[in-house]
Amino acid sequence: MAIVGSGFSGLGAAVRLDEAGHRDFVVLERGNDVGGTWRDNTYPGAACDVPSHLYSYSFALNPNWTRSFSTQPEIEEYICGVAGRAGVLDRHVFGCEVTRAAWQEEHHCWALSTTRGTMTADVLIGAFGALAEPSLPAIPGIDDFDGELFHSAQWNHDANLAGKRVAVIGTGASAIQIVPAIADTVAHIDVYQRTAPWLLPRFDRPFTRAERWAFRNIPGVLRLARAGIYAAREVQVVGLAKNPRLMKLFELLSRAKIRAEIRDPQLRRKVTPNFRIGCKRMLIANDWYPALDRDDVDLVTDGIREVNGHSIITEDGTAREVDAIVVATGFHVTDSPMFDTICGSDGRSLSQTFADKGMRAYKGTTIAGYPNMFVLIGPNTGLGHTSMVYMIESQLNYVVDAVTTMTRRGLSRLDVRQEALDAYNEELQHKLTGSVWMTGGCASWYLDAHGNNTTLWPDFTFRFRAQTKRFDVDAYETTASRNNQAGAVDEL
Fold first, then answer.
1. Rounded to an integer, what distance in angstroms lies between the CA atom of residue 379 and that of residue 390?
2. Coil, helix or strand at residue 246
3. Alpha carbon 38 to its chain's center
């Protein structure tokens, strides 16, 4: 088996497969260590917006979290610790980027080209993640900018921003952490906003010494804390997907936050969204509005026309001179570049397959025409309210059971039936119809070019866990092994 990527999903796959006795795998990671998103996103203020005890593996609970919401360094340390203790690093190849993966029908295997050589594998597990490929804005002249220019996910720590005029493009999850973190250091910040986000309070605090002692020494306390957080978060699904009118309570809370934290009436109007709360990702912060209310921070809502020399010029003709530009415009989610590199049984790439009807998969994991391939954090497994690690572990249950089924039944090929995939996605889109993501009046990255929500799971996450508890082989076309004709994994 070849696992592509070693973030939460790829590392989780390695650990779970190893525990189940399926030890003939290699993890291909283009970075220099495990961690994925939490290895790469090292910008100032980087932290998680899911409580620490829920944003971790259920099989590797961490009693040593220092805060209720963990920072990037602490999460990266946790992931590295899990990898070391699980004993799977010996099957990792770092600095290895997969440039092509093509299904070989004759041998029932995947042929992979990488920057470290070629190989074949019976099973391909795509764990390349949804937040892995930075999305850069197509602004005329930005490539010729004379000052420092970098994406939030590729932070240049050699750049000295002290005393500089800085432009931050975007007001999403990364930007609301970056701006407050650098505001005291830089001379001035221009924040360029296309759409104002809804903000809720961030109930973050350090854990007390007594709490951390209890997490380490009293059996069940850690799991009880995790279960309580999970239940509290899961309740939000009722408002998001089932009865959007209930989200009005969150909207009132957010509006009260704006009134309390911003003095300027004009700025209040700028930061007040024009769509229903929950339609786009809800953000949590206690220092975003106070940062925008500073005299040395300007919120610019006019669109950017071009970058010229050291200046950003907006549609109204105003030129604002800056020394550095931080691009915080998110990631390629529904159009990942990895989709161009994976080719199925008919020779078409995932990008070409998804171009027809959008990004679709069966149980977010398998795609018709791509045999023996499992995608983690695939279509419609995303969440707007709770921990993605829960969804990843649900998929891992399914994948490990699929590999066990292949081994036990002597199968060399399995491919989800098109009719099963179609029926599954019809039901998904039906459930999404009345959700706030479809009726809230916003244009979000949750939606693809067809207007379908191919990103989010529209129900309680425990229902997804139930769906993926066992591998349902009857939904697949299967082929028995042909005397081990499939190629063995070659050494890189």
1. 15
2. helix
3. 10
By DSSP bridging, strand 324-327 and strand 319-321 are: unpaired
d(CA 165, CA 145): 14
Please tell me whether residues 247 and 357 are part of one structural domain.
Answer: no
**Rounded distance, CA 270 to CA 35, Å?**
36
489 lies in a domain?
A: no
- Is the model's pLDDT at 381 over the cut of 90? yes
**Tokens encoding 410:** 């002597």
State the Cα–Cα distance between residues 199 and 47, nearest whole angstrom. Answer: 16
Distances in Å between the alpha carbon of 296 and those of 163, 165, 230? Answer: 11, 10, 39
Domain that holds residue 117: 2-133+332-480
Give the integer Cα–Cα distance in Å for 293 and 268: 9
Express each pLDDT in 463-488 by its tens digit.
999 999 999 999 999 999 875 444 44
Q: What is the 3-state secondary structure (H, E, C) of 52-99?
A: CCCCCCCCCCCCCCCECCCEHHHHHHHHHHHHHHHCCHHHEEECCCEE
CATH number at residue 166: 3.50.50.60
For residue 235, tell me if it sits in a domain: no
Domains identified in the chain, total number:
2
Helices (H) and strands (E) in the chain, counts: 15, 21
According to DSSP, the residues that pair with 283 across neighbouring strands are 199
Among 282, 306, 327, which residue terminates a domain? 327
89, 103: one domain? yes
- Do 420 and 305 fall into the same domain? no
**Residue 28, token pair as written in the block:** 């291909």
Structure tokens at 273: 């969204």
Same domain, 356 and 302: no
pTM of the model: 0.94
Taking residues 156-170, report their average pLDDT.
97
In a domain, 79, yes or no: yes
The pLDDT tens digits for 169-225 are: 999 999 999 999 999 999 999 999 999 999 999 999 999 999 999 999 999 999 999
Instruction: Among 72-81, 282-291, 330-339, 391-400, name the one with the lowest average pLDDT.
Output: 330-339
Same domain as 31, residue 98: yes
| Tokens 């998001």, residue located | 240
Task: Look at residues 327, 346, 370 and tell me which one is the last residue of a structural domain.
Answer: 327
Calculate the CA dihedral of residues 156, 336, 398, 93 and round it to 10 degrees.
Answer: -50
Distance CA 282, CA 251 (A): 10
What pLDDT is stored for residue 202 in this prediction? 96
Q: In what order do the strands lie in the sheet containing 26-29?
A: 92-94, 26-29, 2-4, 124-126, 373-375
- Any idea what DSSP says for residue 480? E
Domain identity same for 322 and 347: no
